[in-house]
Specification:
The chain is mainly beta. It has one domain. It is 15% helix and 40% strand. The protein is built from 3 helices and 9 strands; from the N terminus they run αββββββαβββα. It has an 8-stranded antiparallel beta barrel with strand order 1-2-3-4-9-8-7-6. The radius of gyration is 17 Å and the shape is globular.
Length: 191
Amino acid sequence: MASDQLSHYRDKRDFTRTPEPAGQFVVQRHRARRLHYDFRLEVDGVLASWAVPKGPTLDPKVRRAAFHVEDHPLDYAGFEGVIPAGQYGGGDVIVWDNGVWEPASPGDPAAALTAGELHFDLYGTKLRGRFVLVRTRAGADGKQEWLLLHKRDEFAVPGWNPEEHPRSVLSGRTNDEVKATNLDQDPQPLS
């Protein structure tokens, strides 16, 4: 398991005293049945994941609903493209933001998530500063409901809207451009 392989390294580091990152994060803008942002933090060798319908924000007054979904493999952090219709998550995906993150205080991030509250710092292209994920309840469908919010810090921006920043940090493309490129590459049916 990846977390076992890295435990010796992590035991030697105090992430509250060193600028080294604890893990990667990625936010993918995903147009499936509904537009949402997939917010993912590397925790114990996987990408712990939440669907955030309105996307993350730097506005500290805004609380975003976040729905915990299944963990994803680390190599999914670089995925940008089109998931075919009829497949789970079918739709176009861009890497809207990425970077590194670290817990805001000492301790095990996985344990903090299990307990229902994680404070952390993001160092991304679009998202920076102190964020909090707080579990609020389990929905009728059994999915865990959380809130994602940005704290008041030097990176807070009142009124900041993720939809005003639509381009991928990897390719510079929008979801529409990714979808159009995929359509251009699909083979045409024979007459």
